[in-house]
TrEMBL record:
<feature type="domain" description="WYL">
    <location>
        <begin position="143"/>
        <end position="215"/>
    </location>
</feature>
<dbReference type="InterPro" id="IPR036390">
    <property type="entry name" value="WH_DNA-bd_sf"/>
</dbReference>
<dbReference type="InterPro" id="IPR057727">
    <property type="entry name" value="WCX_dom"/>
</dbReference>
<dbReference type="Pfam" id="PF13280">
    <property type="entry name" value="WYL"/>
</dbReference>
<feature type="domain" description="WCX">
    <location>
        <begin position="251"/>
        <end position="323"/>
    </location>
</feature>
<protein>
    <submittedName>
        <fullName>WYL domain-containing protein</fullName>
    </submittedName>
</protein>
<dbReference type="Pfam" id="PF25583">
    <property type="entry name" value="WCX"/>
</dbReference>
<dbReference type="InterPro" id="IPR026881">
    <property type="entry name" value="WYL_dom"/>
</dbReference>
<dbReference type="InterPro" id="IPR051534">
    <property type="entry name" value="CBASS_pafABC_assoc_protein"/>
</dbReference>
Amino acid sequence: MAKTSNQKAKILYLMRLFQEETDEEHPLSRRELEERLADIGIHAERKSLYNDIETLKNFGMDIAYRKEQPEGYYLAAREFELPELKLLVDAVQSSRFITQKKSDALIKKIERLTDRYEARNLQRQVVVADRIKAMNESIYYNVDKLHTAIAENRQIEFRYFEWTVSKEIRLKKGGENYQVSPWALTWDNENYYLIGYDMDAGILKHFRVDKMLHIGLLSIEREGREEFGRFDLARYTRQTFGMFGGNEQMVKLRFHNKYVGVVIDRFGKNVPLRPDGETHFIARVNVAVSEQFYGWLTGLGRDVQILSPEAVVKEYRELLRDLGKMYEE
């Protein structure tokens, strides 16, 4: 009975052979195809095998024949080219928010999109300096739940945690649930964030997805549509630094010309720039003024200066003075 069943599925097993076992450097001759099918209890006559190959070609599989040695049939084109698969593997391996366990599982699935010979080229380790993979295994499913809630126009509830000095999880709000209307997911500084309307606070907030626990979808329609309609997500992520908020202000900055690429990467190509002498330029940018913003400036060194407003200049000066005193003491 099993043999009869296999015989009916012959063309499917033949398709799998082409997908998993062949490429231009590793074709299978007619005899080898017959032997592979015989190994799983399928008898294939010469004529029927040729007919099956022709059927698969008509179905859309790009099966070619190689005349030179090693001669035989092989799958010449696939849905994904090897460089595309390598790019996907690199993205998964280097992504901080995907745990190592999930990274390994995803890469195994990507390997099945090509034959076993090319799959060896996908077993690669991307070296990223100081890369710490996420520890919250549930983030993989959190993202899916949040997309579902957004698509179905439903509120969510969840618990939110922070880390303590003893490296333990501490639930915020005393362990009470947050009730939020989810509106968008954004990616910033290698972390996923949810932009949602907080019911209790009555404002839009962002939450790190890997710090959300026990997400539940509620049968209540979302609120905050008007607030989110006025919300410019792209602008918000440009203005905040590491998603640390602050008072939004127009700040005038003076940079050395070597930092023009850094400024465009951070604030976009539409940022207003004007030359200031031969070696510097001035940029006017809207930013959420915070210590993280000041830290970004400090990281650029002596070739950047805040020109205005004076209150921001004063605040930055005081921060630098306090930091200096801390290290002098």
